[in-house]
Structures are given as structure tokens and as C-alpha cells.
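Thread: "does anyone have the structure for this chain?"

Original post by V.I.:
We have the sequence but no experimental structure in hand. Need at least a predicted one for the grant figures.
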Amino acid sequence: MRKFFVTLLFIFTLVFSAQAAEVKDVGTDYIITVQNEISNDIARLRKSIDEELAEINLDPENIEARIAELTKLSETASDDMTLWNYTDEQREAYLRVLSELGLSWSSYSSLIQGSRQVIKAAELETKSNDVSELEIVTSSDIFAQDDLRKEISKVSRGIVTQVLYLQSKLSKLRANLDDAAKLKKELKEAESGGSGLETPRTHILELENARLNIALTRLQVRDIKKIFDQNVDNIKRLRRRLADMSGNLVFSKEMLDSKIDKLQARITELTEELNSARKSLEGANSALSKARAQLGSKDPNAQPITSQAAIFLARSARVSYWEYLLLLIEEEIAYNRELIQIWKDRFKLFNDKASGEEIWAIRDNTEKNINSLERELEGIRALEANILKQVDELQQQANSEGVTGVIQQNMIQAVDNQRKIISDVMNRYEALIPDMIFLQQRLNAEANDNISALRIAEKVSNYSRETIIGFFNTQLWEGEGYAVTVGKLIIAILVFLSSFFLSSFGSNLLKRRLLKRVNANITAVNAIQRIVFYILWVAFALIALNIVEIPLTAFAFMGGAMAVGIGFGMQNIFNNLISGFIVIFSRRS
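Reply from O.Q.:
Generated one for you, C-alpha cells below.
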């Protein structure tokens, strides 16, 4: 049961990934796990298969002889069944089994020839890969890396198909083995007389056919398993090359400029093609208008088809072709302009020149563009199916009875014009859009890689910022209506220290002005300067407390201590200061 779910999960993952231009890398180990599971399934069935096939001669020289025997049995079947007294129902069963067995032997003969060629081609491919593995010099070109990723995507899609095919064939093998076991049991019971089996000859042929189907399916499994194993080896080799390439990859400005020059040149070519297509569309519309005038009010699809209707249908299909082609060219020009921006963005991401906002914008835009392109691709495929339906209808009309000569020629021309829409427009779209999806996916993946690195840097930065902010917001004490934090206290201290220098500057400025203009006594001026200094100091201190929103009540608990300090420790200073003022003013008087 575990094996079943592993294989189912693998198929589910790859099938949905393969719908885009680039198959997601599910990992080499995962693919090898599925490979081992399939190999184990085959190994478990091998013994039962060998036992059944030992009962049938599959030698090449016997195949043609057995086909000849079955041909003779078919020729004498009517007489034989009359001799055996077969009922109508038994006759029908015998003829059916005889026909199926003949086809099975012919299919087995053809499959053996094809199988030999498949094995030979696989062996040559393996040898070629071994040689190229030794000769390849790992490129550091980002464009070569993209090509390698596309090749990995192609091989991965092949693996998806092969896994589904192998699973279906292994299921068929089990069913064939069950059929053979059931038929053997019925024949054994008939031989012992314990069964009501009336037509053992038919059952013998059915058992032979069941065994031959086992042989056929075994060959198919062997061939596709050979290719599957080769693809697994190939994808491992390609991923090794990709890993080696990623280690020394470069994307220089010269490479970017060269790519942009090629895209600009392609835009110029497409612009010329667009102008030519517009002229052709004008001519086609003019011809259609004439055909419409000749047709009058008649329905062009009415039966029988007239020559005017056939001409109108042919010219209408021609107009549709040029309209679709114009849309394609305009779209391709837009794609190439978008490609220029994609390569510029990839260059920025590769060389770490994109800002964080640009990286996020690139990631979001690519996701939207990928979804839009995938929907557009679905629309193109639906439109292609509708055009194919119209082609079938026109073909039927062209081949209908009574449509000959010029009428038939115009109908065939209409069919050809519709088919050209498929070959020249739709197929071109279906090659263009997957390439755009691939490059958008590459840009998205590269943006996500940068976002991952950006997130790590942001986490470190956010951690440091949060740590610092948390420290500054640490609360030291609080009171009614206020809270003193480390940050507030540091700002208060800085402003308070700054106030000391500002007070000193202001008081010294006042002192110089007094000495120049008032001719005051130097001693008096010094005293005034000191008083102004302390007044400014206290004022700036109060301003500092107000700036950081620390109320004076926060320092109320220090008020008493400061008052006691001033009263006992600074009383001599104040006494001397007051005495100085008395002396000064006494001299002045």
C-alpha cells in the first residue's frame, strides 16, 4: 500500500508540474525511489510470468509457423465446428478467439522487431551520453543554464509519461496472469470431469491468447523500462551538470547588453512583419468585401454550396488567417519587450543590485504573469480545437456530393487557410508562451531566493532593533499618570548635560555684553553671570524633563534629599554668595 501511494504521489506531483513550461525538481532521490518501486513490481511478477511463458513456444522460428497454423484453422473453422456440433453461440466464441489469437501473434512478431531497434537505440544513447559526460566542459553562461533547465524539464515530462505507461502495463500484466490462472483452473477441472466445460478447444485457444498477451505486455514493459531507466540516468547526469554550473555561474553586463540587442533586433523584424501583415489584411478585407457583394443576402453555408458562397468562405478564411497572425505578431512584440525587462530584473537579482521593495514587486508580478500566461495558453488550445472543428466541417463540405470543379477548389482553399491558422499562428503561440512561462518562473525562483536571504537579514535586523527598542522601553519606575523608562531617562540626561553647556554659553555671552556696554564692576558682573548661569541651567533642566514627558512628581522622592543637601552641604556657598553681593553693593554706594 505504501508503494502505491509513493508512486501515486510522484505521478500527481509531476503531472501537475508538467503542465507548465518548467517541471519542478522533485529531487533525484524521489525519482530513484519510484524507479526502485517499479523494478520491485516487475521482479515480483517475473516468476509468475516465466511459469506461464514456459508453456508457450516463443522462439522466432515458431512464430511464423504458428501464424500459418492459425490461418489454416480459420479456413477450416466452418467445417470443424460443424463436425464438433457447435451451437451458434459456441461458433461465435470460437471464431472470435481464433481471430484475436491470430492478431496477437502478428502483433508479437512485429513487436519483437521493433523491440530490437528500441534496445539498440537505447544502448547507443547511453554510450553517447557516457562520451559526452567526459567531453563536456561546464559552462558558466546563464543562458546555457536556462537551456539545461529546459532539457531537464523535457526529460521530466518524459518520465511522467513513462511512469503512467509502466503502471498501466503492470496492471495489465496482473490481469493477464489472473486470466491465465482462471483458464488453467477451468481446463484442469474439465479434464478431471468436474466441470461442465463444453468447448475446451476454445478455452485452450483463450489460454494461449492470455499467455501471448502476457508475452506482449512483458516486451512492452521491458522496452519502456529501458527508456525510463535511461531517462533517470539522463536526468541525474543533467542535474549534476546543473549543480556544477551553478557553482561558478556569471551574468555580466556585456551578456545582458548582448541579449537585449538580440531582442531589440527581433522586435525590429517583427515590426516589419507586422506592417507587411497589415497590408495583406487590407487586401484580404477588400477581396472579402467584393465576395460579400457578389453573394448578396444569401447564407454562405446554405446547401447546396454555390460558387459565390465557396469564394466567400475561402476569402473569409483568408481574412481570419491575417487577423490571427496580426494578433500573434503584436503579442510577440509585447512579449519581447517584456523579455527585455525580465532580463534586466534577472541581472539585478543575480548581481544583488535590486532593493528589497523591487525584489518583492518582482516576485508578485511574476506570479500574476505566470497565472495569466497559463490561462492564455489554455485559451489558445481551446481556440485551436474550435478551429480544427471548423476545418473538419469545411472539409466535409468540400467532400460532399455535388461539390466539384471551382467550388471544390475554393472550399479546399478555405480549408487550407484555416489549417494555416493552426500551423502558422497557433503552433507559434504554443511555442512562444511556454518559453515566456519558463523565464517568468526562473525570475520568480530567483526573486524567491533573494527574498529568502532578505528575510534572514530582516530577522537579524528586526532582532537587533527589537532588542534595542525593548531595552529603551524598559520601565525603571512609575507613578500616577507617568512612567520613567530607560529611553526617557537617557534622553533627559543628554538634554540635561547639553543644558550645562548652553547655560554656560548664555551666561558668558551676557557677561561680555555687560562689560562692553555698561562698564560694570568686574566683581558684580561675575556674580550676575553666575546667577544667570544657574537660572538658565534650571530652566533647561525643566525643559528637558518636559521634552521627555517626565513630570516633576517623578523626582518628588528626591526633593527632600536635595533640600537637605542644599541646607547642610551648600549653606556655606550660599552664605559666601550673599556676602559677596552685600560687599559689592556696599562699594557701589
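V.I.: this helps a lot. The longest helix spans residues 405-472.
O.Q.: and The chain has 14 helices and two strands.
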